[in-house]
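Hi V.,

You were right to ask for the full record rather than a summary. Here it is.
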Amino acid sequence: MSAEATNPGAQVSRRRGLPRIDLRRIGRAALLGPTSRDRLPDAMGHVADAHRAHHPDADLGVLHKAYVLAEASHRGQFRKSGEPYITHPLAVTLILAELGAETTTLTASLLHDTVEDTEVTLDQVRAEFGDEVCYLVDGVTKLEKVDYGAAAEPETFRKMLVATGNDVRVMSIKLADRLHNMRTLGVMRPEKQARIAKVTRDVLIPLAERLGVQALKTELEDLVFAILHPEEYAHTRALIADNATAGDALAAISEDVRRVLREAGIAAEVLVRPRHFVSVHRSGLKRGELRGTDFGRLLVLVGEDADCYAVLGELHTCFTPVISEFKDFIAAPKFNLYQSLHTAVAGPDGAVAEVLIRTHQMHKVAEAGVVALGNPYVSVESGGAHDGTGSSAGTTAPAGAASESAGDPGDSERADPTRPGWLSRLLEWQQAAPDPDTFWTTLRADLAQDREITVFRAEGGMLGLPAGATCVDAAYAQYGEAAHGCLGARVNGRLATLSTVLSDGDTVQLLLDRDAASGPSPEWLSHARTAAARIAITGWLAAHPETVGLPAATPRAALAVSTGRRDVANAVVDLPGATVRLAGCCTPVPPDAVTGFAVRGGVVTVHRQECRAVERMRALDRAPVAVSWGDAPECRVTLYAESFGRPRLLADLTEAIATAGAAIVAATVEPPSEQRVRHTYTLELPDAAGLPGLMRAMRDVPGVYDVSRAQHPATA
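Predicted structure:
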């Protein structure tokens, strides 16, 4: 497909009086059939019109200057399709202009191949257009195969990602460049088409998704689908063609929606959006036979956030909502800036229509993602480039980029959308992967994780992690290599093992060993989901081969110790002649509120009132016996100590218990599980008032993270 795929022709829609080319419809047309290969009319005319639609006051002089340099430097060069090479940078620039990119980005996109394919140098670009444009052009310039050999492609992507960390517009240009190249891929050999399509699928499409540039992502998906899955693509294409009138069903529902909103006094624009090829294919796999309403969705655009919820209320009142389809991405935006309300409603005939509700600004960001932010490094878009400081690969980074990207990536997860947490994590782990093959394999695996969660740190701040991340991943995301000494974690206040999978919104407190020489276990690799964690663990294990291959601790029987001390039951029951026994399931001590129940043999068992055994006794209509505490200060209690295994832990715990003045009646140590050890102590105290101090002393023992009183159902 030629660069004319970006020619708007007559496909122009208007929103708020501004002309806008629908890239989705253009991409759809590019897939459905061939177009003319005539040269782009009025070379820069479409670019200028599209740019002015988003930036009415933009100075076009710098764009014309860039076009003159690009056209002159590429003169005599032709693409494999036979077109003059200048059609490519023009098409790339038009794609970005339609997305609303600012002047600096468009200037760089016109020049993005000059340094790579012509005699123009970076110094010339800097002298003519400034440091910022020079940085963007250098960021997308490929590394030479003659210098890097087979590593040229992965190292080029590494270079682009590092440049993107300072200025996200680098990747915007790369995505538009790949989109136009994919549109014109038909002139390549089939094997080369497949290779380029696989890289696009594994790297570029996930990056487009993470940067929120849905307009580019969906068309790239369709183009890749057509190359890598030709049979499924042909079937989907035929299915769409056979259901050419499917939009009528949605159009009818859209009229009902317009009427409902008009009667409610809500100003809204209701549009029918056809699904793209991959979306139709996925819907078919999910739902089986497709109905007319499955070939598109309704889009409702309003002015303010509150209007979105007003529209939702009217739709759920006047139509039958499909509650399972409701999602609120306004209150909880996706990690790629996406905001919208998703719902589905059923019409009178039972046809279900999916509905997206968002403001005009949300829609702009949903389509263009980070491109819609304009120049993220200045407060007011001026339409031109400006100089900055800092350097990378011989060029100057944008002003403010270094300061914005510095600091804790978790804290800036929401504050700086141009440097989201996933990008900060990627830039960190790539430094630890100098080998190109390792980097390339890890990058693809990292980008394959297409959902993000946010967890909160107990001491404040947030961590952005991929869905499925565990406490191991959180530890390395927060502490880096210091996480080698992590023993466990508290998740939402509860003790958890390192293999615990985290959920969105969890609060995590990582627990570190005080011994700096401690390191990770090989089994941590099976729990790690992030590249940073896997690389760090693998590196430590490689540097400490003596720890690899050591047999895991063999399960051992529970260790039990008993002193044979006399029973202590300092309780008086209102039942003459009865023997009193304190229940082992909750081990009550003064001044606990207690109650008793008569059991066989004239024995009254005393329980704490909140013990679950009390509820069970009452459910059996067992009459309670009144209990009061006697004058003797002694008491017996059972405590559970949750800890992580380390040398001398048992000795330190027993020493803490003895120092607090308690005697051990019985002790049990369970076999360790994932470094977690549970100790059960039955203790005799000279005075119940010393129990809180005893529990504090046990918690202060290194490695012990929770001490609690027994409170479990009685077994007999």
